[in-house]
Amino acid sequence: MAGSQRVYKQRIKSTQTLKKMFRAMELIAASRIGKARDRAVKASPYSRAITRAVSAVATHANIDHPLTSERTDTDRVAVLVVTSDRGMAGAYSATVLREAERLRGQLEAEGKEIQLYVTGRRGVGHFTFRGREIAKSWVGDSDSPHADVADDIADTLIAAFGADAEEGGVGELHVVFTRFRTMVTQEPQVIRMLPLEVVDGVTPPGADPLPLYEFEPSADDVLDALLPRYVRSRIFNALLQAAASELAARQRAMHTATENAEDLIRTYTRLANSARQAEITQEISEIVSGADALAAS
User: Fold this and answer.
1) Prediction pTM value
2) Of 60, 89, 123, 157, which has fewest CB within 10 angstroms of its CB?
3) DSSP letters along 159-197, please?
């Protein structure tokens, strides 16, 4: 019994240590989620504005740009998967990786060859363990992405899309990330970013039509300048959405882990008390038995 009591006390101590760690991680995530959410929200107006500008060029100028044209010379497809650098975020990375695997299966069924680009150590570890080649990866700041990283990702993917088929060029670019809805709702999402599909070119019912524009020096030059910025803004927005989702998932997971640790501590405390009572009862029984034996002699 004494051994059982020591075991329970050791478990209580170790669980209390884990509880402190979970609570600290919850507080850190809670302190950072506000900033991450604000960054994602504040990036949306710029993304909408540049989308409207690209729509204006595409609507009012009859031009054929490489980033808006379907490629028929290659079946290679680039897939960018946005995951986290660290765990302790519940099913956050597992959910987006499951969506990436679903997309991979769908594209391979269509006869496409997948070229992987990954952000976050969890995604890198997932695909490396399964022996899948990664064209390029970015790690280190999944919960606080920087604009220069988004620019590097965009430049890499635009270069891959514009390269010749013999040099490894890709015909499509898909992005798999997690969109932040609320603190309790984050949704994995897949978007086809290239070739560019301008969905805002059609005026919604009841909305003001796009004004007529004159493009200087020309529509081609304007589109050359806008499309790379458009791709960069979409990728940066995806990274910001994923960062806010990761922190929200981590805060929720750590809150649950803290509550589970408290439940374990209560359970181990009851078991330790029961072991102590059993030990005391056994000692009293031994004393009484000894006294009865002496009295009988």
Assistant:
1) 0.81
2) 60
3) HHHHS-GGGT--SEEEEEEEEE-SSS-EEEEEEEEES--
